[in-house]
Amino acid sequence: MSPSTAVVWTPDFLSYQLSDDHPLNPVRLDLTMRLAGELGVLDEIKTLVPDPASDDELMRVHAPSYLTAVKSAPEVPFGVGHGLGTEDNPIFFGMHEASALVAGGSLLAAQTIAEGRADRAVNIAGGLHHAMRDRAAGFCVYNDCSVAIAWLLAQGYERIAYVDVDVHHGDGVQASFYDDPRVLTISVHQHPLTLWPGTGWPGEYGSGDGAGYAVNVPLPPGTGDAGWLRAFHAVVPSLLDSFRPQVLVTECGADTHSEDPLANLELSIDGQREIYRTLRDLAERTAGGKWLALGGGGYSLFRVVPRSWTHLLATVLDRDVAPERPLPADWVAHTAKLTGQPLPVAMTDGQAVSYEPWTEGADRVDIAVLDVRRAVFPLHGLDPDDPRD
Q1: What mean pLDDT do residues 347-353 have?
Q2: Plot region of 198 (φ>0 → left; ψ -120 to 50 → alpha; else → beta)
Q3: ∠ CA(280), CA(236), CA(355), 5° rounding?
Q4: pLDDT at res. 2
Q5: pLDDT computed for residue 76 by the predictor
Q6: Which end of the chain has a smaller Cβ tally under 10 Å, C or N?
Q7: How does strand 5-7 pair with strand 120-123?
Q8: For the domain that residue 137 is a member of, what is the CATH number?
Q9: Residue 122 burial class via C-beta count within 10 angstroms: exposed 0-12, middle 13-18, buried 19 and up
């Protein structure tokens, strides 16, 4: 285990519960921490407990009128607009406090890295990447990813890379920094023609001084481990090598899994574990080991998210869990009481993870690969048609 790794956690994160039957159920966080604990991933780890982000910290990325709306929404019977009170973002009591706490968690993770107290930090409750400057969207009230990045910029950081591996486009973070060349945002997601929010095309590559610093890799429905990794490796490492970020921020949504009920990619737990290991390697290679890892989406609450994010925690902590490791009996017994679903027996889906490196035209994901490489690679001095770049 790296001695300079921080885990941000408080049971109060579970208060971010949009409604009793909402897909974004905080039970997934509780089950992840229980599983990681029972597997020994968190042994001797003293978790950092955050304070809620202040209004000033939130207003680096959100409009003051929006904060007012969030605070007042639970007391206003007919809603306040700003995307609040919808099916995706219902109003709940304590909404501002719960949302500010999640943002405070990601902010604390960023501060811990910036102050030299850790090289890596993880907040699995974070990753609420859809919230916009003046509205809630996609289960997200405050955009903790953007809040953390904006804070780092305010401290003088000049190159921050944000890599989003959630199945949905990281639209809120892209919007926050669309014209800012200090932030390279890369999102690998299901194709916008087939999944909300309908954005994240290769042609969305930034504006003004930020042209080339927004990168989108849209993948066709049904893409599995091999295709996903093929596309990722054809785009992301070259850009990170060129950009040389001072910090790598990642949004690690687990909703790319084949069992996720809200999307249509076909990754396995084994593929997701490989993604986290790849992100760790890229942080070491391109960002001096500085890695801020956040959670994100994931709606297979019992079978997928706890296993996937336990692998994430283990990867950040350099305590990698072997795929064949059995699930602890106590965890299975506890989780079985919460769901009628059959539960997996191990930390694997039994998939061998491999991929063929990118060459033009050999795979169905290559259309997306070529489109994004041709859109942004020349702006970074890279040859879009050369597989060596």
Answers
A1: 96
A2: left
A3: 80
A4: 47
A5: 84
A6: N
A7: parallel
A8: 3.40.800.20
A9: buried
Range of the domain at 237: 5-380
Q: How far apart are CA 69 and CA 85, in angstroms?
A: 11
Q: Nearest to residue 254, comparing CAs of 218, 294, 219?
A: 294
Backbone angles phi, psi at 50, to 5 degrees: -85, 160
* 389: in domain: no
The per-residue pLDDT of the chain, averaged, comes to 96
Q: Using one digit for the tens of pLDDT, what is the confidence trace for 34-78? A: 999 999 999 999 999 999 999 999 999 999 999 999 999 999 867
Contact 302, 335 (CB under 8 A): yes
Which among 82, 130, 189, 257 is annotated as catalytic?
130
Max distance between CA atoms of the chain, in angstroms, equals 58
Q: How far apart are CA 377 and CA 19, in angstroms?
A: 43
Q: Which two tokens stand for residue 124?
A: 């699995």
Secondary structure letter of residue 42 according to DSSP: T
Within a domain: 102: yes
Give me the pLDDT at residue 20, please: 94
The alpha helices in the chain, defined as continuous H runs, are 27-38, 55-58, 64-72, 95-114, 144-154, 171-176, 225-243, 269-286, 305-316, 329-336, 366-376
List the beta bridge partners of residue 161: 184, 248
Beta-carbon count within 10 A of 186 CB: 25
Confidence at residue 80, expressed as pLDDT on a 0 to 100 scale = 86
The total number of structural domains in the chain stands at: 1
Residue with tokens 């780890």: 45
Give domain status of residue 385, yes or no.
Answer: no
Q: Band of the pLDDT at 362, cuts 50, 70, 90?
A: low
- The answer to the question of residue 387 being in a domain is no
Measured in whole angstroms, the distance separating CA 344 from the mean position of its chain's CA atoms is: 24
